[in-house]
């Protein structure tokens, strides 16, 4: 897993570097945008590694810092080349304007959806999950759980998280956008990312296809396609409740 950890630390900061340059555009361009984005990324990763010294289950590593900064540099370099094209007259700009509501809050929602896809690269998380907060503060405990119990937790977690991201997509979509088709495409993209993660670290790219994952996927899709018909306020309330439920699970 050492190679995977290094690769994940590099890839994890590539979007940060790219988005940093994009956020500074057009106020800062070129080398100035690259330098500021890289400096902020370096400060963030050093701060996070230092904070890990106080968590009993985490180990701070200089190698992680180097990998994070390298990833941010790659992303920032790509951003210097791509940001003007993407934000001013590229296909993303046209798609963004046609498919989603205007405003920076909606941009933040799109970033969250992209990050949700990215965290599916972690092969140790449940399908559509975002990790276990308990592992950050407590040493892992060994407990005997039956297959039915684990499958139920996995199904509920997968379904809840899929409904949350589907409701988020529906809340930022422009009128007339085919939301249900977008939900199916988003779920399919997440499954592809999960399979790629397992293909890179395991012999079987589809070992994640467990009973719980299948049940959660089917239930999550069905509930998502129904829930998008709710009023916007109801969708947001339901999403908030499901986020809390998934976190507890």
Helix fraction bin: over 70%
Major sheet characteristics: none
Mean pLDDT across the residues is 85
Characterize the overall form: globular
Computed Rg: 19 Å
Portion of residues in beta strands equals: under 5%
Coarse structural class: mainly alpha
Strands, total number = 0
End-to-end separation in angstroms reads 26 Å
Outline the low-pLDDT stretches. none
Tally of helical runs: 10
In N-to-C order, the SSE pattern is HHHHHHHHHH
The quaternary structure here is single chain
Q: What is the gist of this entry?
A:
The chain is an all-alpha fold. 75% of the residues lie in helices and 0% in strands.
How is this structure best described in words?
The structure is a single chain. Helix 1 crosses helix 2 (30-52), helix 3 (62-89) crosses helix 4 and helix 7 (147-172) runs parallel beside helix 9 (211-227). The model has no long low-confidence stretch (mean pLDDT 85). It is globular and about 55 Å long. The longest helix has 28 residues, at 62-89. It is built from ten helices and no strands. It is mainly α and 249 residues long. It has helices at residues 2-24, 30-52, 62-89, 91-99, 104-119, 134-137, 147-172, 179-201, 211-227, 232-248. The two termini are 26 Å apart.
């Amino acid at each position: 897993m050492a190679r995977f950890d290094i690769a994940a630390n590099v890839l994890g900061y590539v979007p940060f570097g790219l988005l940093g340059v994009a956020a500074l555009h057009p106020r800062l361009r070129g080398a100035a945008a690259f330098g500021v984005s890289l400096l902020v990324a370096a400060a963030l990763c050093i701060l996070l590694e230092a904070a890990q010294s106080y968590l009993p289950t985490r180990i701070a590593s200089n190698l992680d810092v180097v990998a994070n900064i390298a990833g941010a540099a790659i992303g920032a370099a790509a951003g210097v080349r791509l940001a003007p094209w993407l934000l001013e007259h590229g296909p993303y700009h046209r798609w963004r304007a046609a498919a989603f509501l205007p405003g920076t809050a909606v941009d933040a929602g799109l970033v969250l959806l992209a990050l949700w896809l990215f965290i599916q690269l972690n092969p140790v998380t449940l399908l559509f999950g975002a990790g276990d907060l308990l592992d950050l503060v407590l040493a892992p405990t060994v407990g005997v759980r039956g297959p039915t119990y684990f499958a139920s937790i996995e199904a509920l977690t997968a379904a809840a998280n899929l409904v949350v991201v589907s409701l988020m997509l529906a809340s930022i979509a422009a009128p007339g956008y085919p939301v249900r088709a977008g939900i199916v495409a988003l779920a399919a993209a997440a499954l592809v990312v999960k399979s790629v993660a397992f293909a890179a670290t395991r012999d079987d790219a589809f070992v994640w296809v467990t009973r719980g994952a299948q049940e959660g996927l089917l239930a999550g899709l069905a509930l998502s396609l129904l829930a998008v018909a709710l009023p916007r306020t109801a969708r947001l309330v339901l999403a908030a409740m499901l986020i809390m439920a998934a976190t507890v699970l």
